[in-house]
Amino acid sequence: MASKSAFPPGSSWFESLKKSFADVPVDTANDNAISTSEFLEAAESLASLFDVLGSVAFTPVKNDILGNVKSKKVRDRQLTAPADSESLQSLVVNELKTKKHTATEGLLWLTRYSLMSLDPCILRPLFELTRVPQPSSSGLDFTSTALRHNQSNPQTELSDSFRAAYGTTLKPHHSFLVKPVFSAAMSATPYRKDFYAKLASDQSKLETDREKWLEALERQVKILNGFTARKEAKW
């Protein structure tokens, strides 16, 4: 049976988002400062993509993304010091001045590791114990790379695009314990035609909405990867 879109005719998953990455303000006149509130809302909205993927294998990933946004991390720092947290960059710099890095670390996990830890209670301690260097690639980078690969290769299945993206972004930084778990998750992705049919009934509109969202996500990932590699963002 063919998959049907979960959204009304003429709309798409991208339009259902509370906040799209395409709507996140980036202040080019202020070192590409990314607005904290809108970015966090867009990240929360992204988590619903794993519901569309339809596999329970992605549930811990979704929960990890939401946890880094909400649970005693980035959002809490923003609420505690709103004047010092208007942009993600200012949030990090000002928190580090207090000799704390809870929110900064949460942002790193959100942007770099959110798709790495299918079981954060187990894998994060392992990560710390083995002292793996921080990769320049991110979980959001992994997501955008996979979707860009799939969009650029119309005959390629979603699972193949996710595997290709995994190989160039996160795999080099994963231990032998994590790689098999991710391999299983890649195999749990739906067929390409089913996935896109769920995102929208009008595929031409879907392409327009997807490109706008994806371009914005890619730009913000690039900005954050550059910023978090700088001395001022380290502790």
Query: Mean of residue pLDDT?
Result: 81
Describe the main β-sheet briefly: 2 strands, antiparallel
The secondary-structure class comes to mainly alpha
Tally of alpha and pi helices: 13
> Distance N terminus to C terminus?
53 Å
Q: Estimate the global geometry from the Cα principal axes.
A: globular
User: Could you tell me the number of beta strands?
Assistant: 2
Walk across the major sheet and give the strand order: 1-2
The gyration radius over C-alpha positions equals 18 Å
Runs in which pLDDT lies below 50 for 5 or more consecutive residues are 113-137
Helical coverage, percent range? 55-70%
Query: Proportion of β residues?
Result: under 5%
Order of helices and strands: HEEHHHHHHHHHHHH
Topology of this structure?
Layout: H1 13-16, E1 26-27, E2 33-34, H2 36-46, H3 49-53, H4 59-70, H5 74-80, H6 88-97, H7 102-113, H8 120-130, H9 139-152, H10 158-168, H11 179-187, H12 192-199, H13 203-228
Antiparallel strand pairs: 1-2
Protein described:
By secondary structure, this protein is mainly α. The chain has 13 helices and two strands. It has a two-stranded antiparallel sheet. Strand 1 and strand 2 (33-34) form a beta hairpin. The longest helix is centred in the last third of the chain and has 26 residues, at 203-228.
